[in-house]
Amino acid sequence: MIAAAPFDYATEPLTATVCPVCGTDNPSVPCRDRYGFAIGVSTCVCGLGYLNPRMSAQQYARFYQGAYRALTAGFCGHLHDDPATQRAALRRAEAHAAAIAQWHPPPMVTCLLDVGGGTGVMALGMATALKIPSVTILDPSVEDIHQAEAHGCRGV
Fold first, then answer.
1. What is the C-alpha radius of gyration for the chain, rounded to an integer number of angstroms?
2. What proportion of the chain, given as a percentage, has pLDDT over 90?
3. Among candidates 96, 84, 95, 156, which has minimal Cα distance to 120?
4. Average of per-residue pLDDT across 100-121
5. Helix (H, G, I), strand (E, B), or coil: what is residue 51?
6. Are strands 38-43 and 49-51 parallel, antiparallel or unpaired?
7. Is the pTM of this model over 0.70?
8. Could you write out the DSSP letters of every residue in 84-112?
9. Looking at residues 33-45, what average pLDDT do you find?
10. How far apart are CA 96 and CA 70, in angstroms?
11. Please, are residues 17 and 28 in contact by the beta-carbon 8 Å criterion?
12. 4 close to 35: Cβ distance less than 8 angstroms
């Protein structure tokens, strides 16, 4: 497990807190992420939540190249491509799809976009349950994108 935060939010300047979706001003609130690191979060009434401040492209690249796998393995107790992890992702996908189907009529969409979708397992499970024929995964990990593409997703 990584002992020091890979990105120190306290030393970074806050960015504008206006929601990029609806334009509402959302002050950043200090809190802790799932790994216990101090972060800032802005949450909007429209449902969008975002980190504030945000990492730069270079900081994200360093985070995903050096810290991400160790953090998630420590948090989850196993590696992301472990079969148990894949089964857990499918269970979450089925639960999310059931909730969506209960609250909304079946979506009339042809593609599901999963931002930060990793290997695509969860998105594919949701797409199957919701009868969405195509899945696109957007993820900074080239390795994950290759796995998602091997599963039939479009990778970005």
1. 17
2. 8
3. 156
4. 76
5. strand
6. antiparallel
7. no
8. HHHHHHHHHHHHHHHHHHHHSPPP--SEE
9. 77
10. 26
11. yes
12. no
Torsion of Cα atoms, 106 then 90 then 120 then 19, to 10°:
60
Beta strand pairing status for 134-138 and 154-155? parallel
**Other Cβ atoms closer than 10 A to 98:** 13
Dist CA 115 CA 145 (whole Å): 11
Residue 65 has pLDDT above 50, yes or no: yes
Q: What angle do CA 108, 109, 114 make, to 5 degrees?
A: 140
Half-sphere exposure (Cβ direction) of 127: Cα atoms closer than 13 Å: 21
Shortest CA distance to 63 belongs to which of 112, 7, 131? 7
The whole-number pLDDT of residue 134 equals: 92
> Which residues, in sequence order, are CB contacts of 40 under 8 Å at separation 6+?
9, 14, 28, 29, 30, 31, 51, 52, 53
Instruction: Look at residue 76 in the predicted model and tell me its pLDDT.
Output: 59
Question: CA–CA distance from 6 to each of 55, 70, 139 (Å)?
Answer: 10, 11, 19
Using DSSP, state whether 68 is helix, strand or coil: helix
